Amino acid sequence: MIVTHLTLSDFRNYRSLDIDLAPGSNLFVGSNGQGKTNLVESLGYLSTLGSHRVSSDQAMIRQGQDSAIIRARLAFGEREILAEVQLNRASANRAQVNRVAIKTRELPRYFSSVIFAPEDLALVRGEPSGRRRFLDELLVLRAPRMSGVLADYERVLKQRNTLLKSARASGVRESQLSTLDIWDDRLVSLGTELIVARSALVAELAPEVASAYEAVAGQDHSAALSTYLSILASSAGSDDDEQDAAATATGAIAQDFVADAFRAALARLRRTELDRGLTLVGPHRDDLVLSLNGMPARGYASHGESWSFALALKLASAVVLRRESSVGDPVLVLDDVFAELDESRRGRLAAAVGDFEQVLITAAVFDDVPEELAAHVVRIRAGEVIEDAG
C-alpha cells in the first residue's frame, strides 16, 4: 500500500497542507518543532484511530479551531481509494471512504501503518500497559473486529469492578454474588478470546523479532518474546518485577485451557477481590515479556540494546502485517529514529526497511539519514512545505 497524496486541514500546526508522496522512501526534514512528526502522526491516526504521542484527539486539532481533517489518497495494485477522518471538539468524529460515510472504527480496514518513534523505547523499559497496548493495536490492524472485543472486555471489567467496590462498601449480599457470577462468565468469555489472540500473535512475532533484532543490532543476542498470564500466577496483585515464572507462556495457548484457568483463578481469588474491590486477574493484568540472552530486557538491556529491541518489535509487526495483507505492505514510519543510532546501526536499519513499498522518515538533520533513504526529500518549516525535492 502507498499513500500518494495527503491533505491536512487544521491538524496540529498545519492550517492547510497538500503534499504528494512517492513510493519507496520519503524523507521529511526540518528543525525540531516545525511539524515533521505531526505530518506522520496524521497517517498513524488513519490506521489506528489514535496518536503515538497523546491520548486525546483534542490535542491534534489546531488551536482555536473546532475540527481537523486528515485526508489520504491510497493506492494498492490497480485500486485507489480516498480515506478521510474529521476530528471534532464538540461532537463525534466522522469518517468517509470515497466520499461515503462510514463508522470511524472501520477506517483501519482500509489503511495499515506501523510507526516507530522515540516514545517506543518504553516498550522495553516502560510499564506493562504500553506493551499490552502494542499487542492490542496490532491485533486490531490484523482483525478490526478485535476492537469490539477489547471495548466489550473493558466495559465488562469496569462493571465488575463497580460491583466489587459496592459489595466491599455495603457488605456482601447474596444477590451481589449471583450478579457477580454473571459478570464472571462474560469476563471469562471475552478475556479468553483476547488472551488466546494475544498468545497466537506473540508466537507469530517471536521469530520475526529475533531476526529483526539481529538485522538491526548486527549480532545475535537471542531476542525472545513470551507472555505473562495473570490467570496462571500463584499470587495476585504482586509487583510486575516479581512476576511468577510459572505463569509465563511461550507459543499459542488452547482456548479451553485458558477458559478453565481463568474461571479457576476468579474462584480462588473471589474473597481477595471482594476485599480489595478490584479484578486481579485477566488480560488487563498480563504482560509481554522481552528477554535478551535469557535475561529480562527491562532492567538489563543497555540503551543501544533497548533501542534495537524496540525497533525489532516494530519491524516484526510490519512483517506480520504484510504477510497476510490483501492490499500490500503497511506503510512504515520511522519518526526521528536515525539520530539515536550509530552509523553502523543506521546502515543496517536502512537495509532492513529497503524492500517495503513505502517508508516515511522524519529527521532534524539530513545527514543523519543514509543516502539510500533520501530519494524523495520534503523540507518542513512552521507547518508548511518549503521545498519538495522529489
Automatic annotation (TrEMBL):
It is found in: Cytoplasm. Signal peptide: none annotated. Residues 3-363 form the RecF/RecN/SMC N-terminal domain. ATP binds at residues 30-37. It comes from the Bacteria. Keywords: ATP-binding, Cytoplasm, DNA damage, DNA repair, DNA replication, DNA-binding, Nucleotide-binding, SOS response. The keyword Phosphoprotein does not apply. Belongs to the RecF family. NCBIfam families: recf. The RecF protein is involved in DNA metabolism; it is required for DNA replication and normal SOS inducibility. RecF binds preferentially to single-stranded, linear DNA. It also seems to bind ATP. This is DNA replication and repair protein RecF. It comes from Antiquaquibacter soli. The gene is recF.
